[in-house]
Design brief:
By secondary structure, the protein is mostly helical. The protein has one domain: Tetracycline Repressor, domain 2 (Orthogonal Bundle), CATH 1.10.357. Helix 2 packs antiparallel against helix 4, helix 4 packs antiparallel against helix 5 and helix 10 packs antiparallel against helix 11. The radius of gyration is 18 Å and the shape is globular. It starts with a helix and ends with a helix. The mean pLDDT is 92.
Amino acid sequence: MMRPANIVTSVADILAGIAISGILSNGLSIPWLSIVLLAVSTACLYGGGIVFNDVFDADLDKIERPERAIPSGLISLKKAAVLGSFLLITGIVLATLNSVTSGMFAVLVAVFALLYNKFGKHHSFFGPLNMGLCRGFNLLLGLSIVPTMLYSHYYLAIIPVIYIFSITMTSRGEVHGGNTKNLYLAAVLYAIVICAITYFAFVNDRLLWSLLFLVPFTFMIFKPLLKAIKQPVGKNIGAAVKAGVISLILMDAAWAVTFDALILAFIIAALLPLSMWLSKLFAVT
């Protein structure tokens, strides 16, 4: 119900934010407690958001996806709502234990997740934007491990916003099929994201290392997307969305190496096979 493969990608976002903060390369001791608090926090926030997605979609899922936990009777609507609330509150508390700033970003992630589940998903533009903001705030949640770095690097959150905007927009056709207009737009937005990360890697003199992750990232997202453009049926669009979500790990690894956190970049990339394995056991979309 909580889509474990997706939760792994949210942890990758946090690690990318931590890499961008520069805290791992300042010569001081590694703040393990803060890293664990933020990683578990985002796992709870993402899990809670996904649970509420199913809570708000319970009636629709009875028709379109009766195999899901609530319509199939695996869990009651009330218990699912309690679980979702517990996860969101726990995520906020854990982030606040790190710092008030982190707690504020956790609140933003939780609020925007609920807004998306209740209202945003029904709007063709604000829905994808809403979901993108959740990921943008999640990156900033990781960056908040060094609050002062938020003032100089906050604008980097626009990249995951654009990327998730394109994935969410694409996902609207995974049940009944979609039109190629949205898919072509997604391809353009993907290209913008890749070019943006490449630019920062070049400026930071880390381009070659960044390409180590950007090349497979590009291949992984564009292969299924091009197939969906050629044949925009639900199955192909779903595969493109799934690849886009899981590929976030490679994008986060590219961010990490761009900001001179090579070891962390490989640690993030190592989450990819875990997420791919979980995606075979549990639904991603």
